[in-house]
Design goal:
single chain; mainly alpha; 235 residues
Length: 235
């Protein structure tokens, strides 16, 4: 038979682990969305740099570093970011197992190719190489397809955020029901204890104190559940 203490410990164990917090999810969505803007900025500044616009090359190079760094953080994870924490995200970046040898779903590879194209183009511009214009044209050609892929990846992050929110809501409801059950059991124990205490003498008085404490704990637990229900209902 599972005791009240064991059930409380089970509740504590279930709620101690959270895969991805709302704050982390918001950061991931923001970074994924920002990648779209950064990719366009790289291309635009590369075009201006090709025309010798002052400061454009330095901005393009800095933006490329930020883009590459953000991509690594999203895929590999660091500084509190979990990397590709779900099958849906791994599929969005790397495709399905049967797509490994094709270009379908290989967003990670396409991003790596874009970074390589941008690096080649900016390096050619910096060296005033004869093939600089051709390199920039190749970069421009890759921009729109990549933008669509980055948009699709951002959509997956948003879908995962909604999925986790639904899952957390279900877990919260299950936790509430379990706590209610524990409170009901504790209430029955305290009530039976008061009956037993009323039928005995000195020992009963001591037991009555314990039963009274149990009653107070039950009322406090019920108040916590009520407050938690109101708080989660307003989210």
């Amino acid at each position: 038979m599972v005791t009240t203490i064991e059930r409380i410990q089970a509740v504590q164990s279930d709620t101690a682990e959270v895969d991805v917090s709302n704050e982390v999810l918001s950061s991931l969505i923001n970074i994924a969305g920002r990648q779209r803007m950064l990719s366009q900025r790289i291309v635009f500044k590369a075009m201006l740099a090709l025309r010798r616009s002052e400061g454009a090359l330095a901005i393009a190079q800095d933006t490329l570093r930020t883009f590459a760094d953000s991509h690594a953080a999203l895929v590999q994870g660091r500084d509190g970011l979990p990397g590709l924490f779900s099958p849906a995200l791994r599929e969005a970046f790397h495709g399905k197992d049967d797509d490994k040898r094709s270009s379908n779903g290989q967003v990670a590879r396409k991003i790596a190719d874009f970074i390589a194209l941008a690096s080649t183009a900016l390096d050619a511009i910096a060296r005033d190489a004869p093939r600089a214009e051709q390199a920039v044209e190749a970069l421009i050609a890759s921009a729109d397809p990549l933008l669509n892929d980055l948009h699709a990846v951002t959509a997956v992050y948003e879908q995962e955020s909604r999925r986790i929110a639904r899952m957390q809501k279900r877990e919260q409801q299950q936790l509430i029901e379990r706590i209610k059950s524990i409170a009901k059991e504790a209430h029955i124990v305290s009530f039976n204890g008061q009956i037993v205490a009323s039928r005995t003498n000195v020992t009963g008085r001591e037991f009555a104190v314990v039963a009274g404490v149990m009653t107070s704990i039950t009322k406090e637990l019920e108040a916590v559940v009520s407050a938690f229900v109101k708080k989660t209902a307003s989210v």
